[in-house]
Design brief:
The structure holds 2 protein chains of 2 kinds. By secondary structure, chain A is mostly beta strands. Chain A is 0% helix and 50% strand. In chain A, a hairpin with a 5-residue loop joins strand 7 and strand 8. The relative contact order of chain A is 0.33. By secondary structure, chain B is mostly beta strands. Chain B has no helices and 11 strands. In chain B, the strands form 2 sheets. In chain B, strands 2, 4, 5, 9, 10 and 11 form a 6-stranded mixed sheet that branches. Chain B has a 5-stranded antiparallel sheet with strand order 1-3-8-7-6, with no helix packed on it. In chain B, strand 4 and strand 5 form a beta hairpin. The chains are: A mainly beta, B mainly beta. The interface between A and B is medium-sized, with 31 and 25 residues.
Chain lengths: 114, 110
């Protein structure tokens, strides 16, 4: 059983560019959450998708947007990249029906903005 | 914003010793979870404790929760070099929003 997968593993962009990160949830999971983790910090919640809709959102600007597809996979898009967007981006999946909210994390995508 | 604060932020112990990490949070929660992260990679879920539970065990892990003090502790007994990692507490409030603390960096010296 494949766990949560993310692509790409590493990415280098320049300021002003746009980036798309991808996530495939663990089999049987229907909810995907995205987090940004700056160096030396804990993950910060960006948003969560369930039934192809954004259900919760953290304190991130509209430059951060996402999408969930019918197969539950998800994309995170960041427009007009800033140097401060350099971070590890983590995707986590869970199953809404359990009520336990245990999230399973992917290995992350490390984004460097130059 | 970070909900929890782990204490200490860094901990160095000898192999075989016990490691205790604490977490404090600010708002009411549905549950609290502990995660481990190796070298800035993905997080591994360790244990979940519900708001109506006071203590939970899983192998060498023991977690306590005191909702009146809004705090939790993670005890790792008989530590091993492989336990070297960063440990995060994460609280879940309404609607599955998970909020992480800043983490405790644990080093276990062989």
């Amino acid at each position: 059983d494949a766990g949560v997968t993310q692509s790409p593993t590493h990415l280098i962009k320049t300021r002003g560019q746009q980036v798309t990160l991808r996530c495939s949830p663990k089999s049987g999971h229907d909810t995907v959450s995205w987090y940004q983790q700056a160096l030396g910090q804990g993950p910060q919640f960006i948003f969560q998708y369930y039934e192809e809709e954004e259900r919760q959102r953290g304190n991130f600007p509209d430059r951060f947007s996402g999408h969930q597809f019918p197969n539950y996979s998800s994309e995170l898009n960041v427009n007009a990249l800033l140097l401060g967007d350099s971070a590890l981006y983590l995707c986590a999946s869970s199953f809404t029906g359990t009520g336990h909210q245990t999230q399973y994390f992917g290995p992350g995508t490390r984004l460097l903005v130059l | 914003s970070q909900q929890g604060e782990e204490d200490p932020q860094a901990l160095s112990i000898q192999e075989g010793e016990n490691a205790t990490m604490n977490c404090s949070y600010k708002t009411s929660i549905n549950n609290l979870q502990w995660y481990r992260q190796n070298s800035g990679r993905g997080l591994v879920h360790l244990i979940l404790i519900r708001s109506n539970e006071r203590e939970k065990h899983s192998g060498r892990l023991r977690v306590t929760l005191d909702t009146s003090k809004k705090s939790s502790s993670l005890l790792i007994t008989a530590s091993r070099a492989a336990d070297t990692a960063s440990y995060f507490c994460a609280t879940t409030g309404g609607y599955q929003k998970v909020t992480f603390g800043i983490g405790t960096k644990l080093q276990v010296i062989p």
